[in-house]
Amino acid sequence: MDEVFLKGFLIDGMVQRAGFRSKVKELAKAHRLRGFAQNLKNYDESVLVVCKGTAKEIKAFEEDLNGLLTDVDKTLKDRLKLERELSRTTDSLDAVQTSKGFDCRKALTLLERKKSILRKLGGYSVGQATYAVEKITPVQDLGTFQANIYAAGFGDGFKLIRDDEELAARLEEGIKALTRLESASADLKYAIIETDYAILAIKYGSLNDSFLKGFAKTEKPRNKK
Questions:
Q1: What 3-state class would DSSP assign to 169?
Q2: pTM of the full predicted structure?
Q3: Within the chain, what is the greatest distance between any pair of CA atoms?
Q4: At what angle do helices 55-98 and 104-122 cross, to 10 degrees?
Q5: CB-based contacts of 196: which residues, under 8 Å, 6+ apart?
Q6: 75 and 132 in contact (C-beta within 8 Å)?
Q7: What domains lie within the chain, and their CATH numbers?
Q8: What whole-number distance in Å separates Cα of residue 10 and Cα of residue 40?
Q9: Which residues sit opposite 135 in a β-bridge?
């Protein structure tokens, strides 16, 4: 039978109040590890992860943990890149709309680009990947966290440790986050609809202008005597 080990990790960065521990739990369960993840009260910065399993299981878990953090950072960067692109496109669109000679074709191109970016942003939930990891430090001496380990215990699975104070704070934050999520989702949907209307207005407005100009040039039929 393989020997069982206990190993801990400290994850620093914006990793609290962001669903990070749930991600850790998913990985731990996938590797059949026991243990826990707990926010540390050091100005809301660190998460302590302690797991129990074979050397092979823990190594695989650590590799996946690093891979998850890389994915999270990439998600953040991708979303920020889209937000910057949206800002630049909006600025360009404003410049076109306020210029003396309105360029319909350029405005349509920018509006289509804006709609595409908004739809891509819609693929990211408001609360998704709002955490960013600065570093992962394997704990060399778990004795420092002996009280945490004793209080958590080791059952059959992997637990998320939350004290009463944290539960109360998370409940309040959850209500606020839900309100922000609903508001942001509504704003995003409205922005897409608004962009669609602007596209239609230019397309059909241009079409109508072309029709009227063409009609004006058409010679009136002469009455036959």
A1: helix
A2: 0.55
A3: 111
A4: 160
A5: 115
A6: no
A7: 4-214 (3.30.70.100)
A8: 9
A9: 12
What the block records as the tokens of 106 is 């350029």
Scanning the structure block, which residue is given the tokens 């026991």?
A: 34
| CB-CB neighbours of 112 under 10 Å | 13
Tell me whether strands 34-39 and 158-161 are parallel, antiparallel or unpaired.
parallel
Long-range contacts of 115-119 (CB under 8 A, 24+ apart): 115/192, 115/195, 115/196, 115/199, 117/82, 117/85, 117/86, 117/89, 118/86, 118/188, 118/191, 118/192, 118/195, 119/192
Residues 6+ apart with CB under 8 A from 89: 110, 113, 114, 117
pLDDT tens per residue across span 21-55: 888 899 999 999 999 999 887 655 788 999 999 99
Alpha-carbon span 205 to 132, nearest angstrom? 46
pLDDT for 127 equals 47
Reading the block at residue 126, the tokens are 């408001």
Kindly state the tokens that stand for 78: 């991708």
Do strands 34-39 and 46-54 pair parallel, antiparallel, or not at all (unpaired)? antiparallel
